């Protein structure tokens, strides 16, 4: 929630083309905070975290995180509608089978394989696809730095989720309390740190324009 306040406050100090990116970052952390407040109460009452609430959070916030790549490229004038739709579809392919498997509607292994395929598709797009090429060719040094760091968060930070899936649902070696701690730490990196990188790019670019 503190991150939400920070990102919204910082919209005052960036140029108009970056404001949407910071508002989306604030929206991601706000949605996460609301869900954590609710899931905390459920945990206190039942000592369990219903799968559906966790996936509602992810189904809202993860597509928004992917849209941030598009918004960064749009801010520097090189975004296309194709980038937006490919990243959005990739997130849905990654998340929906995971939920269906955890909820018992799909085989655990099948859900894992399809979800991983969606994640790899996203990685291809932001590293080697149109999005990655556009950022590399056109962006300023500040935007390139933020974009590359965001890519590594999606690569390394997001890897925590499938590891948790394997340990909790495929092998059964991790209990629910351990998974909660792992997922909470992952969200700190994947949502707050991700937003801070966007803030860095937005403020750096805005300051450079002001100095000119």
Number of helices: 9
Model regions low in confidence, pLDDT < 50 over at least 5 residues: none
Which H/E pattern describes the elements? HHHHHHHHH
CATH superfamily placement: Rhodopsin 7-helix transmembrane proteins
Shape: globular
Structural class: mainly alpha
Q: Major sheet, described briefly?
A: none
As a percent range, the share of helical residues equals over 70%
Q: How would you describe this structure to a colleague?
A:
With 212 residues, the protein is mainly α. The chain has one domain (2-211): Rhopdopsin 7-helix transmembrane proteins (Up-down Bundle). It has helices at residues 2-10, 16-46, 51-75, 81-102, 108-127, 130-138, 141-157, 160-170, 176-211.
Fold blueprint:
Blueprint: H1 2-10, H2 16-46, H3 51-75, H4 81-102, H5 108-127, H6 130-138, H7 141-157, H8 160-170, H9 176-211
Helix pairs in contact: 1-2, 2-3, 2-9, 3-4, 4-5, 5-6, 5-8, 7-9, 8-9
Task: Please tag this protein with its features.
single chain; 212 residues; mainly alpha; Rhopdopsin 7-helix transmembrane proteins
What would you say about this model in short?
With 212 residues, the protein is mainly α. 85% of the residues lie in helices and 0% in strands.
């Amino acid at each position: 929630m503190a991150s939400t306040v920070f990102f919204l406050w910082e919209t005052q100090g960036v140029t108009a083309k970056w404001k949407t990116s910071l508002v989306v970052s604030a929206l991601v952390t706000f949605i996460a905070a609301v869900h954590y407040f609710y899931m905390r109460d459920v945990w206190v009452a039942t000592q369990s975290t219903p799968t559906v609430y966790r996936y509602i959070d992810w189904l809202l916030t993860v597509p928004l995180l992917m849209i941030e790549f598009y918004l960064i490229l749009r801010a520097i004038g090189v975004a296309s509608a194709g980038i937006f739709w490919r990243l959005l579809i990739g997130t849905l392919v990654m998340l929906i089978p995971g939920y269906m498997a955890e909820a018992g509607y799909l085989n655990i292994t099948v859900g894992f394989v399809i979800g991983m395929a969606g994640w790899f598709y996203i990685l291809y797009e932001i590293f080697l696809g149109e999005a990655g090429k556009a950022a590399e060719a056109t962006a300023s040094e500040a935007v390139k730095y933020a974009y590359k760091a965001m890519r590594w968060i999606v690569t390394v930070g997001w890897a925590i989720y499938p590891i948790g899936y394997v340990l909790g649902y495929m092998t059964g070696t991790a209990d629910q309390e351990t998974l909660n701690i792992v997922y909470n730490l992952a969200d700190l990196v994947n949502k707050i740190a991700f937003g801070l990188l966007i803030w860095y790019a937005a403020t750096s670019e805005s300051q450079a324009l002001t100095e000119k």
